[in-house]
Amino acid sequence: MEPVRLQKFLADAGVCSRRAAEALIEAGEVSVNGKPTELGQRVTPGVDRVNVRGKFIGGGAATATTKITLLVNKPKGVVCGTPDGRHPETVYDLIPKQHARLRFLIAGRLDLESEGLVLLTSDGALADRIARGTEPVLRRMRVSLKQPFARSRVAQLLKGVRIEDELVAAEQVFVLHPDASGSSAELEVHVSHGRGRGLRELFTTIGCDVKRIQCAQIGPYKIGGMPLRGSRVLDTDETEQLFRSE
């Protein structure tokens, strides 16, 4: 088998996106045949022994022929990431048993208290494509607040705030069922896929108390009819439709 760049190997093996793999390599978290690695290094799948944080990563392109993309309906209290002592359940526990052997990446996370649609994929190239954001994938977020939100404040959400050196901002905001003054506690907020995990912090930063956040739509796919904790597989054509929604 032909040698491939180390970051591609890790993405194809489902460890993380290429961008995240580059960060792991730069941080010294990846070794090849027991030796430190560097960006741009090439490895031969099935020949070189690759470890991430001391854990052997088998496969790469040699075992990454099965590429599955799932939409899952995450409940509140389920972690998008590694479990912790208080919240042991993760979105990986929602993966159907027939796909459990694959290594999935989360393409756009929701925070612990948020619920709704999350995209999981075993296709490292797809995860990387979404992470780059050059072809935005729309997420429609339903936000319920504890107090009415004035339409005049929409500009604050569009301007956004900087959280951990990243600008978190809404792309469109719709005030739902406004009263005579133009205020409502129910909003629909549109964000690009992968950039909505700070939505709760955005509202908190501008002084709003959040009651509920639900991802109601990813690309053209809506949550309607999908049971809580349910999932469905997107085929290749459906995956491409993620990048073509209006």
Structure explained in plain terms:
This protein has helices spanning 6-12, 18-26, 124-132, 154-159, 199-205, 236-241, and strands spanning 4-5, 30-32, 35-36, 42-43, 50-52, 55-57, 69-74, 105-106, 115-121, 138-150, 161-163, 166-168, 172-175, 183-192, 210-218, 221-222, 231-234. With 246 residues, it is an alpha+beta fold. The protein has two domains: 4-62, Structural Genomics Hypothetical 15.5 Kd Protein In mrcA-pckA Intergenic Region, Chain A (Roll); 66-246, 2-Layer Sandwich (Pseudouridine synthase). Strands 7, 8, 9, 10, 13, 14, 15, 16 and 17 form a nine-stranded mixed sheet that branches. The chain has a four-stranded antiparallel sheet with strand order 3-2-5-6, with no helix packed on it. The protein has a two-stranded antiparallel sheet with strand order 1-4. The longest helix has 9 residues, at 18-26. The termini are far apart.
Write a compact overview of the structure shown.
The protein is of the alpha+beta class.
